[in-house]
């Protein structure tokens, strides 16, 4: 398995895994009713691609993310990650999670928060601290190792949670509205930070967002979801050069994508 | 490594410094002086009222009277305070321990939840005062019934707070632990127990104050020592001064035990800010 060697803190550029969804559907059954949350979702995220999932609130994006994350089983259809099942991927520690809130542990320093997954995996203190220091530096938090979460801003907490997700070198990063709880200015900065991190650690990223501009700015491809029960309305490749820059948001092509997506989401 | 410190992204996101200690400004100092002055005045009035024979000493002895009584017979009060403290602590330890374990069982097993809850609700609905005489019939006059009554009284807050504490764990943290295939024990040790601890300590704080009541009740219904016994005895002799001296001992003991629990919490959980500080730092963001 990938993470048995605990050599250098920088564990090389682990390539992302290909994520394939084919005809994925999910129906929730309770005693009173049957709800179809996801009707038919198929898309392929190529290795190390950045994919955004965008759609109306409550359209089932999070359900799709939970199925990819091996937290829910699809009612029908298949999901493969690097050719294997989601369960195999989880057991092989290929899945990293970033949530809307940072969910850091208040009683652990930033360093020990980032190192938590490695502690679970039984890595020595020196090895996991070395790795956590490297990651805190990567996400721009060098010097905050010994701070506690309540001593730093929300944006910094979210950076630490990204570092935590990267700690055990997963090949796929599942980010469910990771910047949703941040103010707009911080959010904007975090997008570019995320792109910079992604250039260094080439994971496959599935990124749920409500922001059209965020999706266009970050992604290789954008999956636009329909209303519940969700289908993929459109799977669009974003043909803008990388690395993406602040100026690119003034590019007419950028606006064209934004306009196009807005139109799709509105009707 | 990319030089990202120069990109200026951190500038607007500097860490919000958290007030580590509340500052004592001149204003709060003055407010405190007023509060202290108020209570000092109250005690002085009390003293004067008794001395001026407005109140009979056997109804309400003057503070100087029972403080003198305490000074005179300190060895007697010390002996009984120690007896009460011992049964309070023994009962508190037993009750909290059992409460914690039952709380864990309830939090982790639905079957145990169904079995334990009715029994808990039953024992909580029956007034413990009513059980106390029965306990002396079952366990005799001595330390045991006192300890058991005390334990029964302080079991409940610890139990409930253990259950709520563990159930408040963020499901996303379980998810995170699941992504690295953490064992149940790791989940408990690294996430669930530390999350529950502040809540458990809140239960212990309630528990320890109730434990003092439990011990006194235990001593009222059947004991040959302890402050509860002493209060009962002195009341029967109309020695009100002695009763007040005992009350001072009980109060001091209760406060000391309460502060001990809080001190223990601060010692064990150094990085949990108090609720008030937490809300302060949140609103400041």
Mind explaining what this structure looks like?
- The complex is a heterodimer of chains A (267) and B (285).
- Helix content of chain A is 34%, strand content 23%.
- Chain A is of the alpha/beta class.
- Chain A has two domains: 14-94 and 172-183 and 201-267, Rossmann fold; 101-169.
- In chain A, strand 1 (19-29) and strand 2 (34-45) form a beta hairpin.
- By secondary structure, chain B is an all-alpha fold.
- Chain B has two domains: 25-55; 60-283, Orthogonal Bundle (MetI-like fold).
- Helix content of chain B is 77%, strand content 0%.
- Chain B has eleven helices and no strands.
- The two termini of chain B are 31 Å apart.
- At the A-B interface, strand 5, helix 3, helix 5 and helix 6 of A face helix 7 and helix 8 of B.
Head-to-tail CA distance between termini of chain A: 46 Å
CATH superfamily of the largest domain in chain B: MetI-like
Q: Write down the overall geometry of chain B.
A: flat
Query: Which CATH first-tier class of the largest domain in chain B would you pick?
Result: Mainly Alpha
Please give the CATH architecture of the largest domain in chain B: Orthogonal Bundle
Helical element count of chain B? Answer: 11
- Order of H and E elements of chain B: HHHHHHHHHHH
CATH topology of the largest domain in chain B: MetI-like fold
What gyration radius of chain B follows from the Cα positions, in whole Å?
25 Å
Which segments of chain A are poorly predicted (pLDDT under 50) over 5 or more consecutive residues? 1-8
Main CATH class of the largest domain in chain A: Alpha Beta
Strands of chain A, count:
9
Count of individual helical segments of chain A: 8
Main sheet specs of chain A: 9 strands, mixed
Low-confidence stretches of chain B: 1-20, 274-285
Oligomeric category? heterodimer
Tags for this model:
heterodimer; A: 267 residues; alpha/beta; 2 domains; nine-stranded mixed sheet; globular; B: 285 residues; mainly alpha; MetI-like fold; 0% strand; flat; disordered N terminus
């Amino acid at each position: 398995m990938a993470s048995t060697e605990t050599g250098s803190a920088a564990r090389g550029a682990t390539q992302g895994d290909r994520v394939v969804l084919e005809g994925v559907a999910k129906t929730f059954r309770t005693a009173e009713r049957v709800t179809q949350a996801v009707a038919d979702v198929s898309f392929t995220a190529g290795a190390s691609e950045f994919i955004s999932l965008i759609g109306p609130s409550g359209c089932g994006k999070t359900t799709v993310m939970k199925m990819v994350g091996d937290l829910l089983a699809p009612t029908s259809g298949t999901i493969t990650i690097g050719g294997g099942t989601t369960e195999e991927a989880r057991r092989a520690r290929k899945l990293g999670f970033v949530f809307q809130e940072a969910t850091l542990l208040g009683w652990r320093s930033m360093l020990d928060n980032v190192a938590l997954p490695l502690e679970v995996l039984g890595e020595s203190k020196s090895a996991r601290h070395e790795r956590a220091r490297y990651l805190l530096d990567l996400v721009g938090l060098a010097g905050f190792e010994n701070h506690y979460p309540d001593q730093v801003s929300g944006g910094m907490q979210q950076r630490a949670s990204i570092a935590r997700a990267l700690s055990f070198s997963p090949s796929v990063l599942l980010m469910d509205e990771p910047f949703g709880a941040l103010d707009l200015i911080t959010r904007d900065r975090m997008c570019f930070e995320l792109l910079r991190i992604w250039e260094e650690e080439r994971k496959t990223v599935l990124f749920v967002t409500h922001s059209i501009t965020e999706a266009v700015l970050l992604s290789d491809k954008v999956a636009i979801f329909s209303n519940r029960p969700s289908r993929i309305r459109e799977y669009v490749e974003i043909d803008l050069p990388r690395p993406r820059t602040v100026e690119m948001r003034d590019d007419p092509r950028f606006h064209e994508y934004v306009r196009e997506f807005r139109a799709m989401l509105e009707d | 490594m990319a030089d990202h410190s120069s990109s200026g992204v951190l500038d607007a996101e500097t860490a919000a410094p958290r007030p580590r200690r509340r500052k004592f400004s001149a204003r709060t100092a003055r407010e405190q002086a007023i509060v202290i002055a108020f209570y000092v005045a109250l005690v002085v009035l009390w003293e004067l009222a008794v001395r001026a024979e407005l109140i009979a000493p056997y109804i309400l002895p003057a503070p100087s009277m029972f403080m003198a009584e305490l000074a005179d017979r300190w060895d007697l009060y010390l002996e009984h305070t120690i007896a009460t403290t011992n049964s309070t602590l023994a009962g508190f330890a037993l009750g909290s321990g059992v409460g914690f374990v039952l709380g864990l069982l309830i939090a982790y097993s639905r079957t145990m939840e169904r079995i334990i809850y009715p029994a808990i609700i039953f024992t909580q609905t029956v007034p413990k005062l009513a059980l106390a005489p029965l306990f002396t019939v079952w366990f005799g006059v001595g330390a045991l019934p006192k300890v058991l009554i005390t334990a029964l009284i302080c079991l409940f807050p610890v139990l409930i707070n253990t259950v709520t504490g563990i159930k408040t764990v963020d499901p996303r943290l379980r998810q995170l632990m699941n992504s690295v295939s953490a064992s149940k024990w790791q989940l408990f040790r690294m996430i669930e127990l530390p999350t529950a601890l502040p809540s458990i300590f809140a239960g212990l704080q309630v528990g320890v104050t109730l434990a003092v009541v439990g011990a006194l009740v235990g001593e009222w219904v059947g004991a040959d020592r302890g402050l509860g016994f002493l209060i009962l005895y002195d009341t029967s002799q109309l020695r009100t001064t002695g009763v007040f001296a005992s009350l001072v001992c009980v109060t001091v003991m209760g406060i000391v035990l309460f502060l001990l629990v809080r001190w223990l919490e601060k010692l064990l959980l150094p990085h949990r800010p108090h609720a008030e500080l937490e809300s302060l730092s949140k609103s400041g963001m």
